[in-house]
Design goal:
Helix content is 35%, strand content 15%. By secondary structure, the protein is α/β, with parallel strands linked by helices. It has a 6-stranded parallel beta sheet. Strands 3-2-4 form a 3-stranded parallel beta sheet, sandwiched between helices. The longest helix has 18 residues. It starts with a helix and ends with a helix. Bound molecules: 5,10-Methenyltetrahydrofolate (GUE). GO terms for molecular function: methenyltetrahydrofolate cyclohydrolase activity; methylenetetrahydrofolate dehydrogenase (NADP+) activity. It comes from Fluviispira sanaruensis.
Length: 305
C-alpha cells in the first residue's frame, strides 16, 4: 500500500468498511459508500490536527460555471468541518486573464500560511491551463496535477500529492477489501486528472491495467474482461450491465445533471444485477475527491519532504 505511506506516516488510516457494507436492494451488489468513508477521513483529520499547524487551502475560482461554484462551496464546507482553513479568490469572466491568475498564484506561493493552492477547472477559454498550473509550487499542488506530482506517481516514489479523484477511488477499493493485485483493471478515460493517474495507481498496486478511450475499438468486449472497471467517459449512464463481467467491481467517476435535476454518473444502475460492488453517483467518488483534497492539504502542511 505504498501509495498511502505518506498519509500513514502522518497518522491517517484507511478504515475497514468491508464488514459493514450495505447492499443494493434485491441484489448481491455492495454499495461502496464514499460519503461514509469521506466522513471517517474528516473525523481523522479533526483529531490529527491537534497541536499542529492548521492546514490552509487557497482556491481560485474563475467565471460563472454553476457546477464549479457548487463544488467549491462543498470543498470549503468540508474544510470547515475538519477545522481546516480555506481562502477563496473569485475572478469574474470579464476579470479573468492569465496575468491576473498568475499574480494571485505567486502571492499564494510566497504566503507561508497557505499550504495548498487549487485552481478550479475548467478555466475560461482565453487562458492556457498548463501555463497557469505550472506556476504553482510543486509542494503546494494539492490537486496532484503538476508534472512533478504525476511523475512521483509514475515512478512509484509517492513524494508528492496524488490526484484527488484516483486517490479517493483507491482508498475506497482498499476500504471495501477489494483485491487489486493480479486483477484486470479497465480504466475508461485517459484525462490527465482522472484516467492517467488512475491507471498509474492501479498499476502500482499490481493490477493488469487497460486504458480505454473514445478511439478504442471493441470497448464493450474490453470492459467485459474487467474485474475492476473505472468509468470516466463523460457519457450519462453509458455503461450498463451488458458491459459488466459477473462479480466485477464498478467505480463510477462520471457526474451529470439530468433534465429532472437529479445527478447521475457514467454507469447505469442495472449493473447492480451483475456486479459485486458499485461506487454510485452521487455519494461515491465525489465526496472521496474532497476528502483526499483535505488529506493532501494536511500532508502539504505536516509531511514536508
Ligand atoms: N482543480 C480542480 N480540482 C478538482 O478536484 C476539481 C476541479 N478542479 N474541477 C471540477 C472537478 C469535479 N470535482 C468534484 C468534487 C466533488 C464532487 C461531489 O461532491 N459530488 C457529490 C454531489 C455534489 C452535488 O450535489 O452536485 C457526489 O457525487 O455525491 C463532484 C465533483 C472536483 N473537481
Amino acid at each position: 500500500m505504498k501509495f498511502f505511506s505518506r498519509a500513514q506516516k502522518t497518522g491517517f488510516v484507511i478504515p475497514d468498511l468491508s464488514k459493514t457494507a450495505a447492499f443494493y436492494e434485491g441484489t448481491n451488489c455492495k454499495i461502496m459508500n464514499g460519503k461514509a468513508l469521506s466522513a471517517q477521513f474528516i473525523s481523522q483529520a479533526q483529531t490529527l490536527r491537534n497541536g499542529k499547524k492548521i492546514p490552509c487551502l487557497a482556491v481560485i475560482l474563475t467565471g460563472d460555471n454553476p457546477a464549479s461554484h457548487v463544488y467549491v462551496k462543498n470543498k470549503i464546507k468540508i474544510f470547515n468541518e475538519a477545522g481546516f482553513e480555506s481562502q477563496s479568490f473569485y475572478l469574474s469572466s470579464a476579470d479573468t486573464s492569465e496575468e491576473k491568475i498568475i499574480s494571485i498564484i505567486h502571492k499564494l506561493n510566497n504566503d507561508k500560511n497557505v499550504d495548498g493552492i487549487l485552481v478550479q477547472l475548467p478555466l475560461p477559454k482565453n487562458v492556457n491551463v498548463e501555463k497557469i498550473l505550472n506556476e504553482i509550487l510543486p509542494e503546494k499542488d494539492v490537486d496532484g496535477f503538476l508534472a512533478q506530482s504525476i511523475g512521483s506517481l509514475a515512478t512509484g516514489e509517492f513524494t508528492h500529492a496524488i490526484a484527488c479523484t484516483p486517490f479517493g477511488v483507491l482508498a475506497m477499493l482498499y476500504s471495501y477489501g477489494v483485491e487489486i493485485s493480479g486483477k484486470n483493471a479497465v480504466v475508461v478515460g485517459r484525462s490527465n486528472i482522472v484516467g492517467k493517474p488512475m491507471s498509474l495507481l492501479l498499476l502500482s498496486t499490481d493490477a493488469t491495467v487497460t486504458i480505454a478511450h473514445s478511439k478504442t475499438k471493441q470497448l464493450k468486449e474490453i470492459c467485459q474482461n474487467a474485474d475492476i472497471l473505472i468509468a470516466a467517459i463523460g457519457k450519462p449512464e453509458f455503461i450498463d450491465k451488458s458491459y459488466i463481467k459477473k462479480n466485477a467491481v464498478v467505480v463510477d467517476v462520471g457526474i451529470h445533471r439530468k433534465e429532472n435535476g437529479k445527478l447521475c454518473g457514467d454507469v447505469h444502475t442495472n449493473v447492480t444485477e451483475v456486479a459485486q460492488a458499485l461506487s454510485p453517483v452521487p455519494g461515491g467518488v465525489g465526496p472521496m475527491t474532497i476528502a483526499m483534497l483535505m488529506l493532501n492539504t494536511a500532508l502539504a502542511a505536516w509531511a514536508k519532504n
